[in-house]
Design goal:
This protein is mainly beta. The chain has one helix at about 1-20; strands at about 105-115, 125-130, 145-150, 155-170, 170-195, 215-235, 245-265, 280-305, 305-330, 335-360, 360-375, 400-410. Strand 8 (about 280-305) and strand 9 form a beta hairpin.
């Protein structure tokens, strides 16, 4: 960019030195020495400008120009043919339709994205019965907490990410996305004959051994997640070749599914496994976010082959969400089932910090990203211990933070 600016100032100084006396300008004259040329009237000529070949008489640019006649100041052309830049080869604002535009180039990306979900929100799952007697009586308020939803710490899972696009000088159009296949994270609490959970209004068939959720042996909490993301973005840089501040506008679809299983086993350790003494409460949610997003990005060179980059994105989305809950006994007996669908307004905010390494047409980018979903349904929020509420809790105002490292290869061709 600085080479282009130097060339322009050198052009202006050169033209002023070569100007004839008729180009003189009185102090305070508001008319500039060199007026901009309207693009619609430009035509390319070799040696265009002072010291070069004059356009032919009657041309579209200078219809009254005679051979050897000086250029009038009001239409003084630049010293190069329109569309020619000796430094960058790009086109300027005064270019003619014949100007050779910057060549298009294409790029492809493939890599890995790590996604670790934040812990589930706090919520008691079970307490330790101090007596250890299977009497069907809920322990008092002083009972020690044994299991909490927050104890489940989701693992870091890997998603496949890819992108393709086309770019020209300072503008790029990309289609990008990632896919996280179904992943599980779980936690077990085992305290034989001492775990008491909070379910009540129990349906027939789930009585267990003197109340299935009283003085149970084990509780399992399992979270299953699947995610798919697709985007189409237009990027524009304030500098050439992606340098400077980069502006982004685009459209995005994000699909997030969660399934949470809360399984209770009553007396399976004391007397052996019996499917009639096992019950699983399942909550499943499906968020479908569709909308637009904007963003900012930038990168700075550290070494000739190494750069530091950052990116911020924010999006606002229509979210078509549905959830369902079910209570199933170990042998398949269905105790409760229900759900709801709703249309909601949701947000997505993203941030990333990266290191870029370059070599020829290859770039390797590695860094760390955050993605925060706001106004979405979470599986844990649909669990309702009152089993008369067969449709679950029906909450849609959750938020989920995902974060993790990423690395991918970018190839330009």
């Amino acid at each position: 960019m600085w080479q282009r600016a130097v060339a322009k100032w050198a052009m202006i100084v050169g033209l002023a030195g070569l100007a004839s006396p008729v180009w003189a300008q009185a102090p305070g004259d508001p008319v500039p020495l060199v007026a901009p040329v309207q693009p619609a009237h430009l035509t390319r000529y070799p040696g265009y400008g002072p010291g070069g070949q004059s356009p032919p008489q009657g041309s579209a640019v200078f219809p009254q120009m005679l051979p050897g006649q000086a250029f009038p100041p009001a239409v003084m052309p630049p010293p190069y043919p329109p569309g020619y830049d000796p430094d960058a080869g790009g086109c300027e604002y005064w270019q003619s339709p014949e100007c050779q535009q910057a060549p298009l180039f294409y790029f492809a990306q493939v890599g890995w994205l790590g996604l670790k979900r934040q812990r589930l929100g706090h919520g008691a799952v079970a307490v330790v019965d101090p007596t250890g007697v299977d009497d069907g009586i809920f322990p008092g308020s002083g009972a020690r907490l044994a299991a909490d939803f927050h104890h489940l710490d989701p693992s870091l899972h890997g998603a496949i990410r890819a992108a393709i696009g086309v770019a020209s000088d300072d503008v790029a159009l990309e289609a990008t996305g990632f896919y996280l296949p179904e992943q599980d994270t779980g936690i077990n609490w085992v305290v034989p004959g001492r775990l008491t959970s909070f379910f009540f209004n129990i349906p027939l068939g789930f009585e267990g051994n003197n109340f299935l959720w009283d003085n149970a042996d084990a509780i399992l909490l399992q979270l299953r997640t699947t995610m798919a993301n697709g985007e189409i973005n237009l990027r524009w840089s304030t500098g050439q070749a992606g340098q400077g501040l980069e502006l982004l506008i685009g459209a995005r679809y994000l699909d997030v599914q969660e399934r949470l299983n809360l399984r209770t086993e009553d007396d399976t350790i004391a007397i052996g496994f019996d499917p009639a003494l096992v019950a699983t409460y399942t909550s499943r949610v499906h968020n479908r976010l569709l909308g637009g997003q904007i963003g900012l990005a930038s990168r700075a060179e550290i070494l000739s082959w190494l750069g530091l980059a950052w990116e911020l994105k924010a999006g606002w989305f229509w979210n078509n969400v549905d959830y369902d809950v079910a209570l199933v006994r170990g042998d398949g007996l269905l105790g409760r089932e229900g759900g709801r669908s709703s249309d909601r307004f949701s947000h997505i905010y993203e941030a990333g910090l990266f290191l870029d390494a370059y070599r020829g047409v290859f770039r390797v980018r590695a860094g760390y990203q955050l993605m925060w979903l706001v106004g979405v349904a979470e599986a844990v929020d649909q669990i309702d211990f009152n089993l008369d509420h067969f449709r679950g809790a029906g909450r849609f105002n959750g938020s989920i933070l995902y974060h993790g490292p990423t690395v991918y290869l970018d190839i330009t061709f």
